[in-house]
Structure formats: C-alpha cells, structure tokens
Write a structure and sequence with these properties.
With about 210 residues, this protein is α/β, with parallel strands linked by helices. It is built from 8 helices and 7 strands. Helix 1 (about 20-25) links the parallel strand 1 (about 10-15) and strand 2 (about 35-40).
Length: about 210
C-alpha cells in the first residue's frame, strides 16, 4: 500500500527506451507510486510493447512531439484522466536513480514546496559518475546565467528528475511552452513569475551507452 494520501503518478517520457525500461521499473519504489504512465514518442523499438507488458498506462503519439511535447501529454493525462496529485518525471533511460522518488515526493506531501528538483550538482561527484566534463562546465555556466536572469538560486536548471504538485502544473501555463528541451527552463521561468516554491534534493546519475 502507498505510504501517502495524495495520488502519486510516475510519468515516463519515452523514446527508444526498450533496453533500460525494465531496470527503471525495477528501481521505482512501488510503495511511493500509485500508477505509472508512459508516453511514447514514436519509438522504433519495443518500448510500447514492453510498457504494456509491465502494466503501465501507455499513451502513444502518432507523430514525434519532442521532449517538451511528450511532457505536456504526460502531465495532461496524469491530471485529467488519472487523477494525479503529484507527478514525478522519471526518465526511462535509467540515468537517474528512481530510488530517490521518496525524497522528491516528501516535501510536496508536507506542503513545503510546489515542485522538487533532483540536482546532480548537490549530489556531488557528477564527473566521477560519468558526466562529460564539457557538459558539467556548460551546466555550471548556464545555471549561473539563469540564476542571474531569474533572481533566484538553484544549483541546477537542467535536471530531468523532477516532481510537480498538481497545483504547480495548474498554475503555470505549461501547454504554451516549447515542445523541445527548453521546456524545462521555461517551466521554471513560469514558476518564478507565479511565486511558486521550488526545492532541490541531491541526486546522482549514471552515464552509460544505453542511456
């Protein structure tokens, strides 16, 4: 039985995730997630078949919508069709460790934040975890620029491991955002403009060929 009162849905924006999907599922703490939703963005492998075999709620795009467009379908479906109150985005490439889901969810359950982001910078040793050096330093530079632009402090703007409350997603106009990767930064800008509270928790990542 779940250890919480609010309905938590893990949303998986997927593209060619066959090789890592089962490992991702195995690491999701089942006591902390009520349902799993996978949105497939026209994969060319067995991602959809495997998702259905694992018992996920599965939505299949008829044309590739991009990373941001996939997220839009994830959140819309989770809230409007599944009654989700907390949505945790889990990349099915197994780069982020789903075992950290409770740390993302707890502040939302306690009303301490409207969104919780996993931060590789707070997690320490991202280069030792396999993050390319160019990516590490680019992340630091872009984060510095974004903090100066938004007048807030986050240790990282580009993590894809995030949990949003229903209130957060209904307050920002995420449908107006890009269908590309800039979606993740735009939703932060919207949150800052609306005065929503964002917390960060440390995470570690894995970098390997399948991811």
């Amino acid at each position: 039985m779940p250890l919480h009162e609010k309905k938590v849905i893990a949303v998986l924006p997927a593209y060619n995730a066959e090789r890592t999907l089962h490992a991702t599922y195995d690491d999701i703490p089942k006591d902390w997630v009520d349902e799993i939703l996978l949105v497939d963005d026209v994969s060319r492998d067995r991602t959809v078949e495997m998702s259905r075999e694992l018992g996920f709620r599965t939505v299949v795009h008829q044309k590739n919508r991009g990373y941001g467009g996939n997220q839009k379908t994830c959140y819309r479906t989770a809230i409007e069709e599944m009654g989700g109150e907390i949505m945790v985005m889990v990349h099915p490439d197994h780069q982020y460790d789903p075992k950290i889901i409770p740390e993302l969810v707890k502040p939302l359950l306690l009303g301490q934040a409207d969104a919780v982001f996993g931060s590789r910078m707070l997690g320490g040793r991202p280069i030792e975890g396999g993050m390319p050096k160019w990516k590490y330093f680019a992340n630091l530079f872009l984060t510095m620029v974004e903090n100066a632009t938004f007048y807030v402090y986050l240790s990282e703007y580009h993590s894809g491991f995030r949990a949003y409350s229903k209130r957060f997603l209904e307050t920002v106009n995420y449908e107006a955002n890009s269908d590309d990767f800039v979606f993740d930064t735009q939703i932060i800008a919207q949150a800052v403009a609306k005065g929503l509270r964002i917390m960060e928790v440390p995470i570690q990542t894995r970098y390997f060929d399948e991811a």
